[in-house]
Every structure is written in C-alpha cells, then in structure tokens.
C-alpha cells in the first residue's frame, strides 16, 4: 500500500471537514475558559517565561495527539506536525475572534495584554480543536460508508501502547485542569480542607478514576485477560494515572501563580484538590480519544 503523501492521494474534502470539526471542537471544549475571568486576567499579569514554557509544552503534545487523531489520516511525523500547526492556528484564531466578540479584547489595550490573553486561551482551544476530530467525526447513514469511514479512522485502527495510555491520561488531566487551575477556589479549598479531607479526596479520586475506566466497562475501557488479578489494572493504570494527574496539577498551579506566597501544606492540599478533576480528566481521556 502506498503512503498517502502525494497530491493525488490527498483527500481535500476530508481534510476541510476535519478543519470544520476542529473549529467546532475549539469552541465546544474551550468555551468555559473563554468565559472565565481568571483566564482573562492571566493574560495581563502571568509571568511571560511561564506562559512561554506552557506554549512550548503544548507543541509536542499537539503533535503526538495529531499522530493519533489528526484532521486526516497521517502516515508521517511531517503530516502530524502540519495538523498540529493547523490546530494551534485554529486555537489562536478562534480565541482572538471569541474574545473580541465578547468584548474582552479592545483596541485600546496594550499589545502585551492582547497577546498574553490570546496566547493563554489558545492552548485549551488548540487541544479542543484536535479533540474535535475524534468527538465530532460522525458517520454516514449508509452502512458501507460508515464502514469505510471506520477503516480510514486512525482512532479506531491504531492500537495504543502502555506509554500511549499514560500520555493520553496526561492530556486529559491537563485539559480538565486548565478549566479550574486558574480559579481562586483551588487555593480557597486548600485552606478549608483538613488533612483528613485530603486523604478522603485522594481515596475518592482513585475510586472514581478506577471505576470510570475499568470497573464500569465503558466504551474504550481496558478489558482484563481471563485469569488476571483484579488489582492488576489498579496498579498498572490507575495509580500511575493518578500520579500523572498530580504532577500535571502541580505544574498547572505553578504556571498560573497559584503556588506563589503560600505554605507547603497549602500547596500540597491545592495539588490534592486539583488532582480530583485531573484524575477524572485522565480517566475520561481514554474514552474520548
């Protein structure tokens, strides 16, 4: 089978349909952040080195996601980089247009504020644009077309390695954490909670994460081979997934200045609080992607 790299093999209709789904995905998945005041303010005062690091981290994340769920079937990393660039561009364009329409960005603001606000919003929007490929793909009413679509769909066709599973968990945790990490409530909850509350939160996060993906046998969940101990999935996937969610949570809190000028106990509690939605996002990522 020849690799689809030539002009003749390029399916423009599928590609532009993917672009349309990307735009819809950017709006669908990033709209809560477009309408969150803390995200607007971050564009004004966020340390530019932290913002630049987040923008850089998002690039390989999009490239790897594109290799799995790009706007069209990709055969090379060059194509994946192309799709990732398009998703980033859609995120920037969509963020700018929505923020202008909502009156968040105005002509009398400084370039520093405008660029910062668009940049921070473009990150979740670009991830949403990429997720739109898998969630908004749809199928033809015709059975043959549906089968053909499935055969051309890298989401259905590609196996996911163990490292790939962990990567998807990191993406899911990051995407959901971006919704809540900038808010003041994360720090407020860290002050209100006692260590016992923290332990209960950790137990609840693990239970929800494990049950959401494995025990409930949802679409995309991991079926254990016959004879495999029941704790195998918990040790192999749930615990590492929660650790990943915790690390992503700590990174998001640091990036958004939520760990500045607070004690180590409050930082730890804030990580535990944010890891709860992060764990759910990590679990849901396998089902979504």
Textual characterization of the structure:
By secondary structure, the protein is an all-alpha fold. Helices cover 74% and strands 0% of the residues. α10 packs parallel to α12.
Question: Which features would summarize this protein structure in a list?
Answer:
0% strand, 289 residues, mainly alpha, disordered N terminus, single chain, flat
List the helices and strands and how they pair.
Blueprint: H1 12-34, H2 37-45, H3 48-69, H4 77-101, H5 111-135, H6 143-151, H7 154-157, H8 162-180, H9 185-192, H10 195-215, H11 231-255, H12 264-288
Distance between the termini: 26 Å
Evaluate the radius of gyration: 20 Å
Count of the domains: 2
Mean of residue pLDDT values: 79
Low-pLDDT parts are 1-8, 138-157
Q: Strand tally, please?
A: 0
Share of β-strand residues:
under 5%
The main sheet comes to: none
Order of helices and strands: HHHHHHHHHHHH
Derived from helix and strand composition plus strand pairing, the structural class reads mainly alpha
Specify the oligomeric state.
Answer: single chain
Estimate the helix proportion, in percent: over 70%
Tell me the number of helical segments per DSSP (H or I, 4 or more residues long). 12
| Coarse morphology | flat
Summary of the model, kept short:
With 289 residues, this protein is mainly α. It has helices spanning 12-34, 37-45, 48-69, 77-101, 111-135, 143-151, 154-157, 162-180, 185-192, 195-215, 231-255, 264-288. The model is unreliable at 1-8 and 138-157 (pLDDT under 50).
């Amino acid at each position: 089978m020849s690799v689809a790299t030539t002009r003749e093999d390029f399916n423009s209709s599928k590609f532009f349909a993917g672009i349309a789904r990307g735009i819809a995905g950017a709006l669908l998945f990033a709209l809560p952040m477009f309408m969150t005041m803390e995200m607007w303010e971050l564009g004004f005062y966020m340390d530019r080195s932290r913002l630049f690091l987040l923008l850089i981290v998002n690039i390989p994340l999009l490239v790897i996601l594109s290799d799995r769920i790009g706007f069209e079937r990709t055969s090379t990393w060059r194509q994946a980089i192309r799709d990732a660039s398009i998703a980033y561009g859609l995120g920037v364009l969509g963020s700018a247009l929505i923020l202008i329409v909502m009156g968040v960005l105005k002509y009398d603001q400084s370039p520093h504020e405008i660029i910062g606000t668009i940049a921070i919003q473009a990150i979740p929007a670009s991830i949403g644009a990429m997720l739109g490929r898998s969630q908004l793909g749809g199928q033809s009413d015709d059975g043959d077309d549906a089968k053909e679509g499935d055969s051309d769909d890298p989401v259905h066709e590609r196996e996911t390695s163990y490292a790939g599973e962990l990567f998807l968990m990191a993406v899911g945790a990051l995407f959901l954490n971006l919704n809540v990490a900038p808010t003041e409530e994360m720090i407020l909850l860290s002050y209100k909670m006692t260590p016992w509350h923290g332990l209960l939160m950790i137990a609840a996060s693990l239970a929800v994460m494990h049950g959401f993906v494995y025990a409930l046998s949802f679409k995309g969940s991991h079926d254990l081979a016959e004879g495999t101990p029941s704790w195998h999935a918990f040790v192999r996937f749930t615990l590492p997934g929660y650790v990943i969610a915790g690390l992503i949570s700590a990174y998001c809190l640091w990036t958004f200045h939520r760990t500045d000028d607070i004690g180590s106990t409050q930082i730890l509690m804030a990580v535990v609080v944010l890891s709860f939605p992060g764990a759910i996002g990590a679990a849901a990522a396998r089902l979504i992607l």
